[in-house]
Every structure is written in structure tokens, then in C-alpha cells.
Amino acid sequence: xxxxNHAVSAAKKWGGEPxxxxxxxxxxxxxxxxxxxxxxxxxYHHTLGVWLVQEVFGPTLDIPKGTPGSSHTRTVSVPTRLxxxxxxxxxxxxxxxxxxxxxxxxxxxWMSGSKRKEVPLSHLxxxxxxxxxx
Length: 134
Known about the structure:
Order of helices and strands: HHHHEEHH
Mean pLDDT: 89
Largest sheet: 2 strands, antiparallel
Number of helices: 6
Distance between the termini: 53 Å
Strand content: 5-15%
Number of strands: 2
Helix content: 40-55%
Strand order of the largest sheet: 1-2
Shape: extended
């Protein structure tokens, strides 16, 4: 399911328009920028991802309900954690933790720091002219 479909689903559940939910849905799926397959979900589709959504977007979304301009318009607060949890459950069928993703991950030597490489922090800045040489 893509971000827009998740936003439509959230709007059907809690009201408002899909655009109200789209920033959260796109944040959770933003890991597709790094990985174009199902492994992207290992970055935000878990309990820590839900927590990050709350940190980034705040504890609630204020969703207007009713006809705009009407005296019957009211605002409903929807917990951002619920929006994130729903997204993940729609994709995976359950809410995993980060530990579920890494449980069977092989441990490579570099992960323990045993393979040290002497490389500059940025190769890009090595050949840049300095103010004195310009």
C-alpha cells in the first residue's frame, strides 16, 4: 500500500481529509528513498518508528470535522501514534519491534569496530580551494 492509500484509510477511520494524514504516512514510507524493496520497512515500520512519528509530529493531529464554515464544525484530536500503528499494521499485519527485524541479522566484523579504516570524513572537501589559495 502506498502513502496516499494509507492517508485515505486514516481519513475514513478518523475523519478529515487524506491530506491531514499524508505527512505522517509519507514519513513512515520515506525509507523508500534508501531501499526500493520491502527491506525499507526495517527503518520505520516498528515500535520505534511509531515513537519517532510522535516526536516529529507531536502527540496529536487536530482534524476538523463537519462542513467548513458551518456552525457544526468541530476539531477532533487524533493520536499520531495510532495513525502510525495503523499504517504499519495495514502493511505487515502486526506491529513489530526493531529487534524483530535484526533478530537473525548476521553480525559482520565491521559492526564491532574490529575493521578500522583510515579514511577522511569527506573525500569531497579534500580538493576544495581554501580562501588562502583563491
